[in-house]
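Exam prep: given the inputs below (a chain plus pyridoxal-5'-phosphate), describe the expected output before reading on.
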Amino acid sequence: NAPLAELDPEIAAVLEGELARQRDTLEMIASENFVPRAVLQAQGSVLTNKYAEGYPGRRYYGGCEQVDIAENLAIARAKDLFGADHVNVQPHSGAQANAAVLHALINAGDKILGLELAHGGHLTHGMKINFSGKLYDVAAYGVDPETHRIEMDEVRKKALEHRPDVIIAGWSAYPRQLDFAAFREVADEVGAKLWVDMAHFAGLVAAGLHPSPVPHADVVSSTVHKTIGGPRSGFILSKEEYAKKIDSAVFPGQQGGPLMHVIAAKAVAFKVAATDGFKDRQERTVRGAKIIAERLSQPDVAGAGVSVLTGGTDVHLVLVDLRNSALDGQQAEDLLHDAGITVNRNAVPFDPRPPRVTSGLRIGTPALATRGFGDAEFTEVADIIATALRDGASADVEGLSARVAKLTADFPLYPGLAQ
Ligand code: PLP
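Solution:
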């Protein structure tokens, strides 16, 4: 029972190094967040020792009385939070939740219609070498070449052309809200089921800042670790009529034993998500993204060929368009990294550069909002990013790093925590 630092100093050093990295940089990857310490505690607990195949009250292993309580709490809290008929909290990840959704709704060879990967869709929505592209017959809708928005006329046209069995609404990189009622209409018109993947914007839905897909979709899947800010994992909401199919698609369809330590941590995250503090954090998240979009749309930055896709944002992220900039996505990501800001390069729709380089950046505000940032701090971050992207190769990286260091010092992360 030696402590980690004694038993495995190399891994202990990784944990320490990562805590320092998270503390000393500005985390702006749109899919990341900082979990509360209570989530770290639940996830790093003895529940990791327990096998619990099955569902609460119907397990294939003995000794499940404590983990049943945890899973029932996670289910009840998610139901309340999203107003869903049925919840499955066992998916290990977002991708596994999505595999279970398709497994439950259709058969191999059936047709799915989702957002084009290169336009902001996700791997599990039909990418060629993902299970979704291999098992199902895939068609895709794209964003409008002018507005860069998902236009429902285009979705309807593609649906009428391809007659899919499932229509997927959801994205990994898109800065606007979706019209779920319009998706429902199109699905009904062609006799398709509607699946919404709200992995990115679930926290905004929980806070009432984004329309809820739950009344419109047959099934809704999500991750817990993006805007919600819980443990890395997934969950599925559905109408009662799909409850049994979803449960058996998750277990035994896709998974064996559930990760009970993670499920307990999900319960904690859902409890947090029902608080006023959570709502305030989501509001700061969206306002922060709007502040960044606005600053990156100013003439000095536009003059350097930098712009923001769709001209702004309604959610927790901004997509920067570098197609007319001297910087490509890789160079811009590296430049911001050198200044202490972590973002990811991202292909923009109709990107002329190769996928490993790209002409875009995806910049998200959830982690910094969790750190406590408000309008003043996001204004400062926006100016640091704008200055770096405007000045490119001649940017004053040292000066920008000093501004980043002031922000990280003013908003300490996990104060008192030692790994
Ligand atoms: N769905 C969407 C829309 C996502 O953006 C992601 C993550 O990037 C996932 C699903 C997959 O989640 P995970 O990485 O937990 O498998």
